[in-house]
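Hi P.,

Sorry for the delay on this. The queue was packed all week, but I finally got your sequence through. Input first:
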Amino acid sequence: MRIHIATDHAGLEFSTQLQHHLAEQGHEVVDHGPIEYDPVDDYPAFCIRAAQAVVADQAAGVAALGIVFGGSGNGEQIAANKVRGARAALVWNTATAELAREHNDANVIAIGARQHPFEDVVRFIDRFIETPFSGDERHARRIAQVAAYETDGSLLPDPRQGDVGSSDGRA
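Then the structure:
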């Protein structure tokens, strides 16, 4: 599988170690940066490029996932989720890694490098990679609803409001 990785300065050491681990597992690793430590670097471009590459690979039929790191993983997840077609999940244990794939068909994982020891991070990522999407109708339906909103702003009607759904995407 092709794995796209991006980080900021807080996750650079984890990223380097992880690239070796993933290569040993037989994965093709693509590093989207940074390539050197800079304590004031900006993660958004790195994470957005990684998410774009995952979405493009998947659209081309290439098995691909993404991993983005930062101090907390929050900003990196937000940046990755700005890419149409990216479904980035913040993961903090093996259960959230598994559920991100099983229920949400997440294609990018975000992890806080300052929140976990490297051994835990490897467990989360390995579980994420090995877990398939369940394909359950309820999960596929929900993913389709999010994709519809992302594409054209459409929402299901809100029965509490008599709302027919928004088509402009901006409430």
